Amino acid sequence: MSSTELNALVTQVRRDILRMVHKVNSGHPGGSLGCTEFLVALYSKVMNHKTEFDMNGRNEDLFFLSNGHISPVIYSVLARSGYFPVEELNTFRLLDSRLQGHPTTHEGLPGIRIASGSLGQGMSVAIGAAHSKKLNKDQSIVYSLHGDGELQEGQNWEAILYAAAKKVDNLIATIDLNGKQIDGPTDDVLYMGDLKAKFEAFDWSVIEIDAGNDIEAILEGMTAAKEASGKGKPVCVLLKTMMGNGVDFMMHTHAWHGKAPNDEQLAIALGQNPETLGDY
Amino acid sequence: MKTYTYTDKKDTRSGFGAGLTELGRNNPNVVALCADLVGSLKMNQFIDENPERFFQIGIAEANMMGIAAGLTIGGKIPFTGTFANFSTGRVYDQIRQSIAYSGKNVKICASHAGLTLGEDGATHQILEDIGLMKMLPGMVVINPCDYNQTKAATIAIADYIGPVYLRFGRPSVPVFTPENQVFEIGKAIQLTEGTDVTIVATGHLVWEALEASKVLEAKDISAEVINIHTIKPLDKTAILKSVAKTGCVVTAEEHNYHGGLGESVARVLALNTPAPQEFVATDDTFGESGTPTQLMKKYGIDSATIVQKVQKVIARK
Question: Is B189-315 in CATH node 3.40.50.920?
């Protein structure tokens, strides 16, 4: 897939996110938009994955979303990657839908391998899946994504300590560094200091992607991350993103963490992201 | 009345260790995890024989539950081992989201449950774990009564697909169930036949119930003792069949009456054939330091209390 095609997919995924949360007047557009380029790059270029879903995911790369509240972006990317019909995005957060508010295996949605939403649990799960791959002599990589605010949950630090100690080097955990959480900037809510230094102190390889909303920069960074894997250390990618990216009034604020646009705001936001691959 | 004797006393946690060792030899998908308690959980032989299939997590139970959930992806059958307190209350949300709601095939194996942990005291003596676990949709809850049954249960749960909570204990207790028995999840075992009262017991209280039934027989009271090793799913048929005959029931468990086996039995009776019931359980309290025998007496979860409650429930018929 070319850069032009990837960027077209990014624009379409943004439209999907905005229309999903608008329809049900709930959900989390800010972080979803901030991670759109990353997840499009991951599923389109970075991961070696099958589109026919099998829970055990043998001999393919796996992805675990730990910050489950950005479900709109993973649903859109999974649907646009062929895991389920894009029309199903229309059921997001509705009764009897497989697209629950936060992702779950419970309704059998292809592409989802763990429930997430209660924060801080995904890295442990990803480590377990990485262990399973090694036991199965499967050379594939396990990817995970975590919010930066999510690192305030202590279980992450149990997992970070463990993964390095046990040399879980088939794991690439990405931290979405958007600097924002529900109550405000992460630096104000609970200052976490230098995360690069912290991960390095825990003996992880750290790759920084400063332009975390630029497809080329993401691909370059994830190539470096893959190269760093398999060398005795887990790999952390610090991905600097802009919450609400692609919609001007949703950027530079934490206000759109968990708020849906109204009709007028939706029209403006969609105007900034013209249809590319066809709306669902 | 059929009487039960024993020649040996063993801890149920050693039954777990023996079962895990056997699984290690026969089922290549079984893996084990522990949070710094391999000696207490009797996991050493499994570890010696299968070092690549054991994961020492360190003192980090939340991480252990998540790693166990992840290990199922790829087909492994993880058995986690730590004390019951750290297997449940400490990691409730990790079990709820990453294991139960996610439908993962994790076996949560919990030693040192209840008061009989003894001298360590209330910080470690969880009396709420059955309640916590049985409330989780889809969670199977098993509390075997002796070494042989714990070994059999450990082996059986590997063949069941889905999350299981397996609860066992620290002290040596009489071994009275047959060796190499087949363990059927959810199938109660009637130990004695009786006509005056049904005693439904689980875990360490099953032996206490058998002891009580001997005392009761001497008082001309005929007790039917049922070993309920599986609290969820509960064998309603066995309970209703017995109570239809005896007309009353005493439940006995090493757990708070809130959330325990007794409440599950009461629901079955209330929905079908209401009958007088008495509860042998701890009375909404924490434990304390002491020997297992002292604690069982003080907190009213021994054979003497079962005898008293039987007399009381018969008087209410």
Answer: yes
Closest CA to A27 of A14, A17, A40: A17
Query: Which residues 6+ apart lie within 8 Å of B298 measured at CB?
Result: B290
Residue A240 tokens read as 């600097």
A267 exposed, middle or buried (CB, 10 Å; 0-12, 13-18, 19+)?
exposed
Residues of B in contact with A106 (CB under 8 A): 101-103
Torsion of CA B258, B234, B202, B65, to 10 degrees: -70
Q: Which helix (H) or strand (E) holds B277?
A: strand B277-282
Instruction: Report the residue of chain B nearest A127, measured CA to CA.
Output: B67
pLDDT reported for residue A43: 98
Q: How confident is the model over A154-166, as pLDDT tens digits?
A: 999 999 999 999 9
Between chains, do A128 and B93 touch, taking CB under 8 Å as contact? no
How many beta-carbon pairs under 8 angstroms link A with B?
Answer: 117
Distance CA B221, CA A253 (A): 75
Q: Please give the pLDDT value at position B1.
A: 80
Among B62, B73, B94, whose Cβ lies nearest the Cβ of A57? B73
In chain B, what residues touch A132 (CB-CB under 8 Å)?
70-76
Per CB-CB distance under 8 Å, the chain B contacts of A114 are: 69-70, 73, 98, 102, 104
Please state, in angstroms and as integers, the Cα–Cα distance from residue B80 to each residue in A190, B16, B305, following that order. Answer: 33, 11, 34
Q: Determine the 3-state secondary structure of A4 from DSSP.
A: helix
- Three-state DSSP class for residue A169: coil
CATH number for the domain including A121?
Answer: 3.40.50.970
Q: How many structural domains are present in chain A?
A: 1
* Residue A277 is assigned to a structural domain of this protein: no
| CA dihedral (A180, A184, A189, A191) positive or negative | positive
Nearest to A46 by CA among A111, A143, A127: A143
A51: pLDDT strictly greater than 90: no
Q: Which residue of B has its CA nearest to A133?
A: B74
Does the predicted interface ipTM exceed a cut of 0.90? yes
User: A239: domain range?
Assistant: 3-271
A125 interface with B at CB cutoff 8 Å? yes
B34 touches chain A (CB under 8 A): no
Q: Which of B151, B146, B229 is nearest to B185 (CA)?
A: B229
